[in-house]
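Might I ask for a little of your time on a matter of protein folding? The record follows directly beneath this note:
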Amino acid sequence: MRIMRGSSNSGVLFVLWMGLVVMMTIGETEGGRVRHYKFDVEYMIRKPDCLEHVVMGINGKFPGPTIRAQVGDTLDIALTNKLSTEGTVIHWHGIRQIGTPWADGTAAISQCAINPGETFHYRFKVDKAGTYFYHGHYGMQRAAGLYGSLIVDLPKGQKEPFHYDGEFNLLLSDLWHTSSHEQESLLINGRGQFNCSLAAKFISTSLPQCQLKGGEECAPQILHVEPKKTYRIRISSTTSLASLNLAISNHKLTVVEADGNYVEPFTVDDIDIYSGESYSVLLTADQDPTKNYWLSVGVRARKPAIPDQVLTALTLLNYKTISASVFPASPPPVTPRWDDFDRSKAFTKKIIANIRSPQPPPPPYSHRRIVLLNTQNRVEGFTKWAINNVSLTLPTTPYLGSFKFKLNNTFDRKPPPENFRSEYDIFNPPVNANATTGNGVYVFQLNEVVDVILQNANQLTGKGSEIHPWHLHGHDFWVLGYGEGKFKAGEDEKKFNLTHAPLRNTAVIFPYGWTALRFKADNPGVWAFHCHIEPHLHMGMGVIFAEAVHKIKNIPSQALACGLTANNGRHN
């Protein structure tokens, strides 16, 4: 990152990060700086995978600018919607929004969509160091390219519990050419190759060798390293559909961070990363410095359209001792088979809390347990996803305003079901495929400790069960464990990890399995909890949590300027 300062008293910085220039002003406030950004959201024509697309971007850039701040800083982002026909919002993924639930960026939940031509100020404090990102949370705008990185550093004078000499940031995404089930490209920092392969000479493929000079929009961003140095690679996945695997030829990766939380370091050849997750890994440049090496990202958990041809994105790890134009002498790493779930589970279960970090263990018990059955269903003839047979449909008045002003007719006040029928067969298609729609809310008492059991099941027809990464807004949760088949309360809870459970904000449920989470309802607000596969969310795969909304103060009037809260003035 290179910083260019304006006049000595202007407080204006032009931050150059991976080629993106962002205008930012900095002021001081108690406990940290205020960093002001101006974001213009608009459609643009770009060639991120060597083919021309209409994508969403910010300030003329795709992906959006990287935000970098320190713990305790306040971010003030003036977001102007320059789309002509649709609203927009941005969710700051992994930021807990303590005291600012209206800034979470979830349309119909925490705020109204920002209308074309309007400007909305997101103002919130970043309270924990880590690797995060931001993305659109309205319609399918994440799939359209509305995303960017958000990195929070430790305060000056504090050090990470691991050493590194340099740093890279990789934001992974997918790009669709026709629909969410056909013709996909994978992008690394917004760059990929659809109609050619960087490694065509080394692999079995029908694609020609890419003939890139390096200045193209789709040319890969190369990671340049010095021999014997150790590098932190921050990796986030904002994919709309794909689960991914990342590997670097001949190099080991040591995982040290997951979703902004330190984990007990462990070393692997490759990592699985699901939509909504973020990691930091350490790589030491300890291989032959007269060679370059492949960095490969491939699709997992979904059968390839062409047998034995896994969709991949590639770039190079370049030792600075040789030219970056020299290709590796061997093929890229082979992505593990798409349905090798045992391998995926083995990686996921290695993630435990760092025993030397200050993060607390989970409370020894919970006050309440909610079991959420994930099923594919029919609603009025359409294929939907449902939780305990209810497919989520969002109201026109944001939940935050409805709770704050005790509006009883804006959403279903009947609590949603907290379990499913014990006789439900998770290993076969549903006997009754029909589900209902709903928008009820799970309401918790302040500081209530809640267990959530995510239960997977068979798809609507045929045999099969998909992987689902679930993301919780406003909180981190402890991952207590994973299991096979149907969750059995008396038996399986004895297996919970109550000593080294990792804190996460996104957790996966594997096919025909369950995942147990525990969190403390200690952040007043209304929060989404949903599958981070974007089409699944918009087909109803989510629930709403609320806690202590009466304690929230100073909600900006613009956040609730729609529906039945449109004329309430400033919301205190």
About this structure: The chain has a mean pLDDT of 92. The CA atoms of residues 80 and 118 lie 6 Å apart.
